[in-house]
Write a structure and sequence with these properties.
323 residues, alpha/beta, D-Maltodextrin-Binding Protein, domain 2, 2 domains, 5-stranded mixed β-sheet, 13 helices, 19% strand
């Protein structure tokens, strides 16, 4: 038994609370969800929507604490050192728990040692986006430009080690091109730069790019998926558009400090799954191009393990790295 788990059980005994009753009593105060995203990014927007629903279920405020930048390190560190009682949670993508371990030589956290999986939120594919008035109106045009003048075409990413960064590195590798990577701390700045022609293109989720797509500033050139999105049948896959047959996707999930009582984890998991079945939440997910992914903590842990291996191979093959 880990020290944090022992402390939780001792606390229950001192308070006269049976472990199974702990989940019923929880939460005893406001719940904080640290999010490594800028406020306008799709994951942050959806987390706030879900937090409002959970606040109603828990009769306590659920505060989304946005801490963008630093490849998620600031948000992660703020929960890593928090009490393991379920009142401090962390929302992460596959980048933070499955990509970073292979990308960074010195990672200030260990996903398996410091955290436990709680609940999956959603999965989402990425789109290749470019300025609606720029030179890259097709995948073929982008590849041709990159080959004609190596090292001049640029692509953005939300941060070093993000799915968009690694996906772009794979795109370079598989098309035999060499481009310039421009990481951003604030995703909204990246999309403005692409729309204005300062950066060439990026892989993006629909939810994050949606405001500028709707405003006619950005174009969804292709989807990095095996099939087209039902909501956007006119947007071709990368392979259909003449690019490599590759997948760039992401998922969002909730984690807790290791040592959090299992009864509390199960309670949070059940309430998140219940919220994901709500028609209003499902409609919000659909508008962002996200697919609800309810499930128990164990399959989430297995997914993290399998994706860690998959991305380790991709990092090695592309030569991507971060300091």
């Amino acid at each position: 038994m880990r020290a944090a788990e022992a402390v939780a059980l001792i606390a229950c005994a001192m308070l006269g609370i049976a472990p199974d009753a702990l989940a019923q009593a929880w939460p005893l105060r406001p719940v904080r969800i640290a999010a490594p995203y800028s406020p306008g990014a799709g994951p942050a927007v959806f987390t706030r929507v879900l937090a409002e629903k959970l606040s109603q279920a828990w009769s306590q405020p659920v505060i989304v604490d946005g801490r963008p930048g630093g490849s998620g390190f600031a948000a992660i560190d703020s929960v890593k050192s928090a009490p393991a009682d379920g009142h401090d949670l962390l929302v992460v993508s596959n980048a933070h728990v499955a990509i970073n371990p292979s990308l960074y030589r010195k990672l200030p956290y260990d996903p398996a040692r410091d955290f436990v999986p709680v609940a999956m939120f959603y999965r989402t594919p990425f789109f290749l986006v470019a300025s609606s008035t720029g030179p890259y109106q097709s995948v073929g045009a982008l590849i041709a430009a990159a080959k004609a003048d190596p090292g001049t075409v640029s692509y953005g990413s939300s941060y070093v080690g993000s799915p968009s960064h690694l996906g772009s590195a794979e795109f370079e590798s598989r098309t035999g091109t060499r481009m310039i990577h421009v990481p951003y701390k604030d995703q909204s700045q990246m999309y403005v730069a692409i729309a204005g022609g300062d950066v060439g293109w990026a892989f993006s989720t629909l939810g994050s790019a949606l405001p500028l797509v709707q405003a006619g500033k950005l174009k969804l050139v292709a989807i990095a998926s095996r099939q087209r999105l039902k909501q956007l049948p006119d947007v071709p896959t990368l392979a259909e558009a003449g690019g490599p047959d590759m997948l760039v996707d992401s998922w969002l999930a909730l984690m807790a400090p290791r040592g959090t009582p299992q009864e509390v984890i199960d309670r949070i998991n059940a309430d998140v799954n219940r919220a994901l079945a709500d028609p209003l939440i499902l409609e919000q997910l659909k508008s962002f191009g996200f697919e609800a992914a309810p499930g128990s903590p164990r399959p989430l842990g297995e997914l993290i393990d399998s994706e860690t291996k998959r991305f380790a191979a991709l990092v090695k093959s592309t030569g991507a790295t971060a300091e």
